[in-house]
Amino acid sequence: MHHTPSTQHDEGLEGRSLYNLIYCSLAAPAMQPGEVGKIIATAKHHNPRYGITGLLVYGSGIFFQWLEGPRDNVSSLMKIIADDPRHLNVVVLSEEDEMRDRLFPDWDMELVEASEISVVLEGALKEASDDKQKQMLSLLLRELKSRPPQA
Question: Which candidate, 100, 95, 99, places its Cα nearest to that of 67?
């Protein structure tokens, strides 16, 4: 990945925009217990140096991840994820390049259990200042609330 110095909290400086990408994927059937912890540890080690923040939700064999940071760095990370044999059927749900504040400024990468995603999304919605992000977060929350609870 391309190293960009001082990328954390760089929104709005020198005309830089913040790129965000949301994807989902299936966990490979052969993925061993503990692999998600390894993914988070790797992200916490590497993401700060590349100005990438976000969250990873994992449950029922599905990954859902929100990445934000400099476009080149997030795009490079997405290529790594797409080539990772632990991920199958990677689908990009949304990607935008815009001038706005980070939704997860202090999260190099946090794992959120699927059962807690509503709380995280509600918190992000309260903090969001961008109308498009508020709309997307509200839509995700409505979708979550319309689904029956998993056994």
Answer: 95
Contact 44, 109 (CB under 8 A): yes
149: Cβ–Cβ under 8 A, 6 or more apart, which residues? none
Tokens in use for 82?
């797409």
pLDDT in tens, 66-90: 999 999 999 999 999 999 999 988 8
| Residue 3, token pair as written in the block | 């190293």
Distance (Å, whole) CA 5 – CA 38: 25
The residue type of 133 is Q
> What letter would DSSP give residue 147?
S
Distance CA 56, CA 106 (A): 14
CA distance readout (Å), 58 to 11, 53, 79, 142: 28, 17, 19, 19
**Sign of the C-alpha dihedral computed for residues 35, 68, 106 and 122 taken in this order:** negative
What's the whole-model pTM score? 0.69
